Amino acid sequence: MSIHTKIVDDLVANDISFVTTVPCKQLAGVIDEIDARSEIYHIPSNKEDEGMGLCAGAFMGGKRPAIIMQNTAIGVTINTLATLTQFYRMPLPMLISYRGELREPVACQVEMAVHTKALLNQLNIPTYHFHKESDANELDAILKYTFMCNKPVAILTDASFWGGYGDQ
Amino acid sequence: MIRSDVLRDIAPVIRDHLVVCNIGLPSQELHLLDDQPTNFYMLGTMGLSSSIGLGLALAQDKKVISIDGDGSVLTNFGTLPTIANNVADNYILLIIDNGSYGSTGDQPTYAGKKTSLAAVAKACGCENVIECQASETKEVLQDALASNKMTVIVCKCDSGNIKVPVITMDPVVIRDRFMKAVQA
């Protein structure tokens, strides 16, 4: 089973049926897999804070949402995380490609990578870091934890987790 | 007519539907005029009323009205293509366009100058877009609800505010009360 299939299987098994995405090269396989699943309504968003608004609405409408985005989005969404998702106590699993880590070919990505965990820590957002493929074995438990505590939860997935950048 | 006049006018029409109301004075005015469990008041997060409303409309079958402002739509312009491409016929976006940032002191917005939000919504692919004058809003909204078609309404009104108290209800109470109304 591919890692993309395993991740989306865990989303479906946890009754997540509304997923918004802002793409990243590392997340392309997961996004393709989400598109292929009839159990999930996939709604691409143009900016990550917009996506968090969509997820807030879907949650209040009775669906379990998730957002898939790049770590640069943490810089975009701090206000939304604090004043919407956290203030109203809503659950939101955030599957995040952790650009700017080991094997990163684009220097600018490092500039947000060095702030990513500090910002999540400052926001008191529970954060998990997937570095090896076997780390994804915890995804099911992380999703259950997210909907148990009604909080945004970050899952950072770095280049080593995704097997590098291929021919880039 | 200013925004609070429009809200007073449409209150009997929106009372029976799910309403997501924009941050600041719009929520405070609606809360003062006609507080309902079916109202979700935004206490923060400028720009996301339309997105929250769309997510809600896509997730369940009851009709949803997002009350937004011109300044808030301008700050989240990406919402219009998302709305256009994810049609929910139980969704109405009502943009109360007074050409100003009302909650912050009536500074002018570009929507009050050259930019037409109705034209932008159409260009983004929204199929049912109606621009109306403030006095027509109630009727246009009733027609849109009856049509069972996703509709974007741009209501042109005067800028100006009434004095209203802030909402002191706890956000989790607002959310819990609203979710119970959604499920009722």
TrEMBL record, chain A:
One Gene Ontology term of the molecular function aspect:
thiamine pyrophosphate binding
Entry keyword Lyase: yes
Entries under InterPro entries matching the protein: Sulfopyruvate_deCO2ase_alpha, THDP-binding, TPP_dependent_decarboxylase
SUPFAM superfamilies in alphabetical order: Thiamin diphosphate-binding fold (THDP-binding)
**Keywords per UniProt:** Decarboxylase, Lyase, Pyruvate
UniProt-recorded name of the protein: Sulfopyruvate decarboxylase subunit alpha
Q: Which organism is it from?
A: Roseovarius lutimaris
Automatic annotation (TrEMBL), chain B:
Q: Write down the SUPFAM superfamilies for this protein, in alphabetical order.
A: Thiamin diphosphate-binding fold (THDP-binding)
What is the recorded name of this protein?
Sulfopyruvate decarboxylase subunit beta
Name the species this protein comes from.
Roseovarius lutimaris
Domain named Thiamine pyrophosphate enzyme TPP-binding is located at 40-155
Q: Does the keyword Isomerase apply?
A: no
User: InterPro entries, from UniProt?
Assistant: Sulfopyruvate_deCO2ase_bsu, THDP-binding, TPP_dependent_decarboxylase, TPP_enzyme_TPP-bd
UniProt-listed GO biological process terms: small molecule metabolic process
Keyword Lyase (UniProt): yes
Keywords annotated in UniProt: Decarboxylase, Lyase, Pyruvate
One Pfam match, given by its short name, reads TPP_enzyme_C
One GO term in the molecular function aspect is: thiamine pyrophosphate binding
